[in-house]
Structures are given as C-alpha cells and as structure tokens.
Specification:
The chain is built from eleven helices and no strands. By secondary structure, the chain is mainly α. The chain folds into two domains: 141 residues; 118 residues. The longest helix is centred in the first third of the chain and has 29 residues.
Length: 277
C-alpha cells in the first residue's frame, strides 16, 4: 500500500521557495550589519540596496504566511506566522532603523550580531514548526494560493478595493517623496498633499467597514486615526532620523486598515469554501 505524500510536488516546491526567502531575508540583515561601520559611497549604496531588498523579501514572506494562515485546518500556523512576522519586524527595526545608533553607542558590532543570532535561531525554529505542520496536514500550498487569488478577485471592483488601491498609490508617492525631498519642508508638504488626497478614500473605507458588520466603530476609528497619525509622525521621524527607515513609518499607516480588510477577506474565504466558525 502506497502511503500518501506529505505535500504535492508543487506545494513542496512552494515551501522550499518560502524557506529560501527566509534565509535570504536574514542574509540581507547580516550583510547590512557588517556594512554599518563602512562609510564610503559604495558602502552607502550597498546599504540602500540591502534595505530595499530586505523589505521586498519581507513582503513576499508575509504573503506566504497570510496564505497559510487563512486555512482553518492548520490554525496553529497562524499563531507561529504572526510571531515570526513580529520577529522579522523586530529585526528590521533593530538593524535597518537603529543599527547605526546601536553601533555608535557600543562602538562594536557585537550587540547587533547577538541580536541577529537570537532572532535568526528563534525565527528558524518557528519556520520549522510551520513547515512540519504543513507537511503533517498534507497541505497543498499551490492550491491554497489559487484559492487566495480567487478570494482577492471576489473583492475586485468593490468600493473597498478601489479605495485601498488608491491609498496604495498615494503611499507610492510617499516613497518617492522620501527619496527625492531635499529638506523637511518639502517632505512635510508632500505628506500634507497625500493626506488631503486620502480623505475621500478613507471615508469610503470607513463606510464599507461599518456596513460590513465585521468591524466595530471603535476598530474603524482606530484604523483611520492610525492612518493619519503615522503619516504625520513620519514628518517628525524624518526630522530626527533622516534615512530610509521613514518608509517603514509610512507603511505602518496602512497596517491597521489592511488588517481589518483581511477580516472581511476571511469572511469571503469562508463563504466561498463553506467554512463555518
């Protein structure tokens, strides 16, 4: 009698990609840490490349974790995924954002390397747990990606999808402002324009949240307040820490809104697949 394979070929391939991206993420962090003492033009260019690459890989990994966490049959994965994302966020904050400050304070890479080793070990342990659960449940990641994609299509051409897409475009404008703004006044002006242009779409999202019956008034107001707060806080951040870490502050503006949109998406997922809570 032939035993069932833990994963289909395509699902197994997808898991291997996730594991490799995880290693690439920490490799980028390590190289960034090692380049912190170097102040040459080439080193600074390398730091920018590593910063953007790390953020890009982090976003891809989050996409994998989100897909995995939508399946109720492997609910434990959601817990491990959330912890792992939190750890990776910690790595970004401690190394990419405050790495230079920590190095200057201690005049050594020992503290940063110690932080890196701890985060790497814990994160890999969690990734191993996720991989084991997925294999034990004979989870087809490729199939789940397709379901996730179809779920996203269900939100297409809806007011909430249109509004969040416009806010995404405005965030891209924010990213450009971070790169090209020559002084804090130009940057503050750009943020002000972004917030003014956001009002229409933020109101649309607020209306859709309340109509959905899935997001409370308090949660809705919190997500809207967070949106404006983090954009305004990015101006203060840019004044005292004028580097690419400002991008992370701006990105946080959309975090609460997208978390609650995910709740709506989960409901769509459950309805499309006949899953009851």
């Amino acid at each position: 009698m032939i035993s069932a394979k833990p994963l289909t070929y395509k699902g197994n391939k997808k898991m291997k990609i996730m594991m490799r991206l995880h290693i690439l993420y920490y490799l980028c962090l390590l190289v960034f840490i090692l380049t912190i003492p170097k102040l040459s033009t080439d080193a600074n260019i390398l730091k920018i490349v590593l910063f953007l690459l790390t953020i890009g890989v982090f976003i891809f990994l989050c996409s994998y974790y989100i897909v995995l966490s939508f399946n109720k049959k492997i609910g434990a994965v959601k817990k491990y995924s959330n912890i792992n994302v939190g750890i990776m966020c910690g790595g970004i904050i401690l190394t990419l954002t405050f790495g230079h400050y920590i190095y200057t304070k201690w005049n050594s890479l020992v503290v940063l390397l110690t932080i890196f080793i701890i985060l790497f070990i814990v994160s890999n342990f969690l990734n191993y747990k996720i991989k084991k659960i997925v294999e034990d449940q004979q989870f087809d990641l490729m199939k789940e990606v397709k379901l996730f994609y179809k779920m996203g299509q269900a939100l297409d051409k809806t007011p909430i999808n249109n509004a969040i897409s416009k806010l995404d475009y405005l965030f891209y404008g924010f990213c450009i402002a971070v790169f090209i703004a020559e002084d804090i006044y130009i940057f503050a002006g750009a943020v002000g324009v972004i917030l003014i242009l956001s009002i229409k779409y933020v109101r649309a999202i607020k209306s859709e949240f309340l109509k959905s019956g899935l997001i409370t008034v308090k949660e809705t107001n919190l997500s809207i307040a967070a949106y404006f707060f983090f954009y305004l806080f990015s101006i203060v951040w840019m004044m005292f820490i004028p580097n690419l870490s400002t991008l992370l502050v701006g990105a946080a503006s959309l975090l609460a809104i997208k978390i609650y949109i995910r709740r709506i998406a989960e409901k769509v997922y459950e309805e499309k697949n006949g899953i009851s809570k």
